[in-house]
Specification:
Pfam families: HTH_Crp_2. The chain has 243 residues and is an alpha+beta fold. The protein has eight helices and eight strands, in the order H-H-E-E-E-E-E-H-H-H-E-H-H-E-E-H. Strands 1, 2, 3, 4 and 5 form a five-stranded antiparallel sheet that branches. Strands 6-8-7 form a three-stranded antiparallel sheet. It starts with a helix and ends in a 14-residue tail after the last helix.
């Protein structure tokens, strides 16, 4: 298969791509794979020979806590168009697992092909680097949200971010998207109990900000939700670089 168009859109949203850049991306061969909920997509500790890109569904970075078997912390969510473990291209291995959130589809890109890109396409190399820097910015913003927001506002920030990321590559529209997370998984992400997450969802519904049925979410009042969350998408770097 060829590289997902979601990733092409991810890059085009942030910088200009030449015809040769786009042709290079579309010529990269990939291997398609499907995963079940909770299945490990990329295991920790293994010397990587390929990197993973989201095509459908979501993935999470999952860390196990030393000395506390069965307990975990989720430090990132990945959506279509994201290179989940591109940093594994330059590291010996990951210190966490990447797991499927709900049903998911991914494309694997061999590191040999990435080395060719970095050898022959300087601009694309900078953009690949940029994608890992944006991952780091998202992680920092999660830390800020965890430290400054509570309960429903913290959940609202996550919903604003995920919709913005999905919409920016054409994977969501009309303020509707699918979030294949159980309340326990949301609790792992936000650092709350399932009871607190349930209460936060109820508060957002009661305020008329969202409609949440199963895994389907509709944002009824975007401005109200963003205001509650103090959401500013600047850290997602969605504006094209001006050179």
């Amino acid at each position: 298969m060829a590289i997902t168009e979601y990733f092409v859109r991810y890059l085009q949203r942030r910088d200009l791509l030449s015809e040769s850049d786009i042709a290079c991306l579309r010529a990269i061969p990939t291997t398609h794979a499907c995963f079940r909920p909770g299945e490990v997509i990329v295991p920790r500790g293994r010397l990587a020979t390929r990197s993973c890109m989201m095509l459908r569904g979501m993935a999470a970075r999952q860390h196990e806590l030393a000395g506390r078997p069965g307990e975990r912390v989720i430090t990132a969510l990945h959506v279509p168009g994201d290179f989940v473990d591109l940093h594994g291209f330059v590291l010996a291995g990951l210190e966490h697992d990447v797991i499927s959130v709900g049903e998911s589809e991914v494309e694997f890109v061999d590191h040999a092909d990435l080395r060719r890109v970095t050898r022959d396409f300087a601009h694309l190399t900078r953009l690949l680097w940029m994608s890992t820097v944006i991952d780091a910015a998202i992680h920092r913003q999660w830390l800020v949200a965890a430290a400054s927001l509570r309960s429903s506002a913290h959940l609202a920030h996550l919903l604003c971010e995920l919709y913005t990321r999905l919409a920016s590559v054409g994977a969501a529209q009309d303020h509707r998207f699918v979030l294949p997370l159980l309340q326990k998984e949301l609790a792992d992400i936000l650092g709350y109990t399932s009871i607190h997450v349930n209460r936060a969802v109820r508060d957002l519904r009661a305020s008329g900000l969202i409609r949440w049925s199963g895994g389907e979410i509709e944002i009824l009042d975007w401005h109200g939700l963003a205001r509650l969350a103090r959401f500013d998408p600047e850290y997602l770097e969605l504006d094209r670089v001006k050179r």
